[in-house]
Amino acid sequence: MKLLSIAIPCYNSEAYMEKCIDSLLIGGEDVEILIVNDGSSDRTAEIADSYERKYPTIVKAIHQENGGHGEAVNAGIRNATGLYFKVVDSDDWVNAEAYAQILKTLGDLIRGPETVDLLISNFVYEKQGARRKRVMQYRHCLPVNEIFGWEKVHMHKGKYLLMHSMIYRTKLLHECGIQLPKHTFYVDNIFAFEPLPYVKKMYYLDVNFYRYFIGRDDQSVNEKVMIKRIDQQLRVNKIMVDVFHRIKFNNRRHLRKYMLSYLEIITTISSVMLIRAETQEALDKKKELMEYIREEDRRIYHRLRWGIMGCASNLPGKGGRKTFIAAYKLCQKFYGFN
What we know:
Blueprint: E1 4-10, H1 17-25, E2 31-38, H2 44-54, E3 59-64, H3 68-79, E4 84-87, E5 93-94, H4 96-110, E6 118-127, E7 134-136, E8 147-148, E9 166-169, H5 170-176, H6 188-191, E10 202-214, H7 223-228, H8 230-246, H9 253-277, H10 280-296, H11 298-306, H12 308-313, H13 317-335
Parallel strand pairs: 1-2, 1-4, 2-3, 6-10
Antiparallel strand pairs: 4-9, 5-10, 6-7, 6-9, 8-10
Helix pairs in contact: 8-9, 8-10, 9-10, 10-11
């Protein structure tokens, strides 16, 4: 059995997917690389098949009708045979030295006495044109090089785990039954959220493994693109509210605290983009989102509406909205996102 399955969702990725795949091939026979061609119209399918022919024991090409990023991840999960599962987007890549450490750590963990459900590592914002690369690391939030539970997770405000930093146990993903929605962007937030109640034991390796490329004009995280696709962001936001509402936390207060904080961040991002749209329709959608949350769960609504971020995003009038956006831009500059 393979140690690690890596899914690469690809849609018209001919210009950059080879850099991604080549960075993963050095994992050798310990890894299974699942190239998911999501209905591409360029040479993506041809490139995927050529890698499968050249590396038949490592690479598997999967071809499907276009279903969006989430359906490509779903296909990866369905086809994964490795003990652990990772998603690497086709325009991203991994660091070779950190990759070796990741595989060694996974090997040591599966031979150990405890089952680890989630391996966490750092990722680097490879922002186009930026001289200084911002590293998203967790050394002040999580224990390093040890197995731990939720009681030892102490995330700072604005800090949370992203898909880029996560490697799940494959069987856990099968057990939780995660099914990402089709034709929807921003589903990586659901991937980093919905399985968490099934996660009991974690391990944090303080290495800069994942290189997250950001800066293309057509990228889904480009602010103008996010505003254009705001309905998809709102759909993801509502799904996360639904997921949280259904969870029976059973006194797992540290898990609940983390997931609620994450939900608060995603809701704030939705509010930011709706305010940035500068239309009455967008402001109406912002109001509708909060109404949806209130009807779903009043306790969640109270936290999201009256917490620090909720109060800031609901400052009254045009001046209040300008103040909120100015604060957002300051955070944007500090954290290096978008």
